[in-house]
Structures
1.
Amino acid sequence: MSARKKDSEITWRDIELGAVIRTPGNAAEYKTGDWRSEKPTWNKDRCIKCGICALFCPEGCIHHDKEGYFEADFYYCKGCGICARECWTQAITMGPEEQ
Amino acid sequence: MNKTAMTGMEGSLAMAEAVRLANVDVVAAYPITPQTHIVERLAEMVANGELTAAYIPVESEHSAMSACLGSSATGARTFTATAGQGLELMHEVLYVASGLRLPIVMGVANRALSCPLSVWGDHSDVMAVRDTGWIQIFAENGQQAFDLTLCAFRIAEDPKVLFPVMIHIDGFHLSHVVEPLYLLNQEQVRGFLPPFVHPFPLDPDNPVTMGAFTVPILYSEARKSMETALRSTRPLINYVFDEFAKLSGRQYKPVEHYRTEDADTLLLTMGSFSEIAMEAVDHLRDRGDKVGLIRLRLWRPFPFDELRRASENCQTLVVLDRCVSPAGPPGPVCSEVKAALYAQKKRPNVAGFVGGLGGRDLTPGEFVQMVERGKVIAAQGGEEIEFIGVRG
Amino acid sequence: MENFAVFVPRLVPQKDYFAPGHRACIGCGEALALRLVAKALGRDVIISNATGCMEIVSSPYPTTSWRVPWIHTLFENASAVASGIEAAVKIMNEKGTSKKTPKVVAMGGDGATFDIGLQSLSGAWERGHDFVYVCFDNEAYMNTGIQRSSGTPFGAATTTSPAGKVSIGQSTWKKNMPAIAVAHDIPYVATACPSYPFDLMEKVNKAVATKGPSYVHVLSPCPTGWRHAGDLSVKMGRLAVETGVFPLFEVVNGKYKLTMDFPQLRPVKDYLTPQGRFRHLPKDEVERIQKGVIREYEKLKKKVEP
């Protein structure tokens, strides 16, 4: 996602003053989606576009598409299942992550 | 050169006066003997409008240094003062200050560490914080308590430095003794000390993350970066001392000499006892002995080159430590001096003495004893601790 | 939307100031709470964070989840660092070296707040600094592996208060941090839970708008430490509130106000049963907890003025 050096290639000269990080939010390069063993699927027939799943996602990786239906960004989704558990119309099901 | 008249004041008050002239922004204050006069005077200055600063009366020294971290990281000129147990209580925070490269200035009224409890002066508090990554400078009289505090802000905040600085003044001997000195006026200080500009302070318009954690594959690189930077501050420190000399006529150096020109024996001291040692040197010179004195003005970064140059032509170097390193090599300063001289082709024999602990005075006569006894044990290469002025 | 009185999740601002890519556990209730708090705080803040779960998962060098200025130093000093930041912001404005007035926010877990950092927090409150303190309470030292804190509830098993042949786990009742906050006479104190996200965000807004110190205590369900399924974090928070274990309330200038009251509290075993940390408790200890919860809830209700 980013062009930065691998941790094992960073030299002492690359370290910023005070080891301060000057690129806000660059943790977004890290693919937490690799942690997943289950993934959520939205049933558009049941989704009422309320957004409660997006509000309750600890990663903040659920967003709505152009039509307003919600979906997870699988780069980050850890498959916790909170969205499926909390969905008011049970529009979300957790299924196995394909290999 | 001196635009102000000579005045007299305690070292503590001289330091407070320097902090006022430096137009500090934030003072974090917790009282501890013998530093109290510094924070009291600063409180008075703020209360009377002589100093416009935020005065935070914190609830412990750990919080004092922590508040300084927050203040300095936000871009404010920051000062605190402590002593002895207080310096120890903020021990872990000191590493953070240097690791984050925050230019905090702290006055330390050097005091003995418990147990037994002693509010009086020695260097055990200083020696406990050797490796905290702070620039450390020793004052030996009231004038220096004033001058070096001003230099501290200038050094700390320089973009080529950005390290915290400690100014050490001996507890009671300097903090509480009225000495003659020349102050500088506000205009002079303003010219010498530009405003503090942090390169990337805590600011919503440019968000930074300070204090991230590093895994093993990165920690060493971060430490080497910091250590190299601290070592590289030497030229700027000398530059600031030179600039200060142009302003005041008083030239400070990392190692300062007294009657060392043809000396075959040198005493080495830090802090106010240097002036007692000078009296002893005068007495020994009067009777024909070729003795001189060197004082370490700069303790960290350690002045390797200046020490080696100063000592290469003498036969004996007698070091006074005002701190015990129990069951370790005799005296922290003595061991560092020996280590610094170890690889030299031409170096003196070194003898170390421990004295002046917990406020105990040393007389010029005792310094003379150190020189005489020192020559003997240095030649024998003794490793035992020699206490000076201790009964029994 | 500026206020969260309209309970429409869709209308909540999309922008997150706590970026994904953080290393929190799968289903972490604290990360959810933090994300919501950061959303409510917005961009004009400076955060002083104590060592703990949220600090660690958000700042593995050289990456950071923070999109606002953020400083972490040590475990027990978030409030002292915040005091320094607040003083600096004020004096720089007074002296004209800055025109910016971000809100200062200190954050810490229950360990950092109840235990090791209590002194510096008390000091900052007594001095009256204008800052918000948010406590993310997952009821143990979770980041170091689930050791007890004084925020661990009675009967919970942790690694340093394990359930055993001669022990029922934590043997003391949870320290009442909101009461300690109120005892300092600070203008705003609130309890909140990410299971009630609008309430949480509204309380954060109120805290930010308060002049002087404010305290928001957020219950943060932890599947790893409480030993429940990762998808149940929001439900656990809800059960904590519905059983009266963690009542939601505010104290505004010393006046108590319940956020919600229930005609009938759910039995406490509804909350305890799904959690592995309470699994060892015999019936009589569950009874004791039930009595304790009712007792504390009644005490709280008495403080509420009509």
Note: The longest strand of chain B covers residues 105-110.
2.
Amino acid sequence: MRRRKNIFWIALAAPGILWLAILFIVPFYAVLAIAMGKLDQLIEAPVAVWNPFAWSSSSVIDVWRDIFGSASFAGPILLRTILYTAIASLLCLLIGYPAAYFVARFAGRRKGLFLVLLIAPFWISYMMRMLAWIDLLSTGGYVNKALGWVGISPVNWLGGNSATVVLGLVYGYIPYLIMVLYAGLDRIDPALLEAGRDLGLGRARTFVHVTLPLSRQPILTGLLITVLPMLGDYYTNQMLSGAASTSMIGNLIQGQLGTPGLEGQGAVLSLTLLLVLLIPMIYYVIATNREATR
Amino acid sequence: MTATKTPGEPPSPAIPAPAPAPGVAGRRTRRAFWRNPWRHPWFLEGFTWLYLIWSLAPIVIAVLFSFNNGRSQSTWQGFSWRWYFSDPVNSVWHDPQLHAAVIQTVRLSVLTTVIAVPLGVAFALGINRWRGPVPATFNFVMILSYVIPELIFGVSMFFVFTTLFSTVHLGTLAEVLGLVTWNVSWPAIVVQARLVTIGRHYEEAAADLGANPFQVMRRVMVPLLAPAIFASAVLVFSGVIDDFVIVDLLSSSAGNTPMSVIIYSTQHGGNGGPALNALGSIMLAMSLIIVILGYAGYRLLTRGERGGGVAALAAISGEA
């Protein structure tokens, strides 16, 4: 009986397991086989090498040279990616925290309304949100018109402006951070805050000594949830700037796909990014699991 | 939270108490405002509203200008349906590329939801009850597919369909396979969470009363899991409408390019014109309809449960 029951569960899980094995695990082996593979010199197409004993390291060496070599062009892109991502996620936190804090603590009966407005960007396509800003930032758009009223000449926002790209990233990913922060702050027991106040702490000190330490975990997971996609983002940059002077690692990888001769390097870069992000990803999974079981 | 004055409040600093001159009263009320520990945080509220305006006003403007009777994105020239269907060449309805994009988005959403939701629900049930290293490993793989950056996943899909499974050409089939793999974690995670809250009493009771595993599933588990299954279907459907990276990397021609990719590829590097705003507004309307239906449906399925509207909102936006 026990055995028959077990077979029932195995049969239920099997299609999903097979699907993930064939379309999630095998594809990553394919990327590895291409990263370690050869280049067909004639048509400049990558040739996947499936046998690990025949792997060649030519693409890895090429990528290493691109990043650290004397004529390095990928090095600056990497640095720019880290810089943009750091600034953008810090801005997300600085803007997002007060908003999430207000809705979690003080919205009262209007909490539903505020939540709908905070969640609304989730339901709006990312491309539509970028399109909206392109309209506003274009040469004759409302932003430049408003600048004109205070006597500032129009700014070329969309022609490779770093500030535009960083603000685009903030605008794109801040809703995710806010929802994580809100969920974390909403869970804080009000009794703890009242205890702090009863013991004579003012508003600011209650915040520093009670709320802030309790929101360390949501801040960390929230930052991860913005940093992970930013590091694989090429579309924000491409839509709002399109210039090489602002390109990030995502643009590099995406540009190498479908470019003859460079696909192997795209595979290497993508796997490297995955390796670097594996630890934060696993941390995120563990942290959210702990949160869920608490 | 009661509005009593806290006992530990520091004694008021010695204010010289001569006869109050005009103006001091005002200062005193102002000081009283600052010293009231339960005052409403007007600054925070203002900040939150500013954030919300910054977050949503651009969208409202973009939708408004999709109804503009002219090419401008900043000068209102009167209301028209021109960019939706009136214009015989450039409207979404008459431009073959834009028209095809709307259909492709709907097709991908329906196909992905129909495949991913049953697959994920069955996976969640099986993995939750079958003990051993294999289910544990694949549960981890499933969660990994949930957190991995979409570009890295998309690259692996691109390579597997161009080298190993090259009989699956880039196009609708590749898009559906990629989207299902990317979205199967929604039902799997949401259903597992619901399984934890349900507990095992109901199915054990059913089994004790003589139901076989299939009957337990059909008569007990599926009805109990209905809200979770429904919420995950809403999440997958709206997720596919808004998906960009996977479909961008796996589409091959105008016939299989959905709306998000059309907006991206037409817009960057130049003004795509108001028809794109119309396309984006159609996407927005589709998502909105799904959300409203999802919210209403979820409320209906969870009648009598605690949580109400906020819980339903959280469930259909993946915060459960």
Note: Chain B touches chain A through 96 residues (CB under 8 Å).
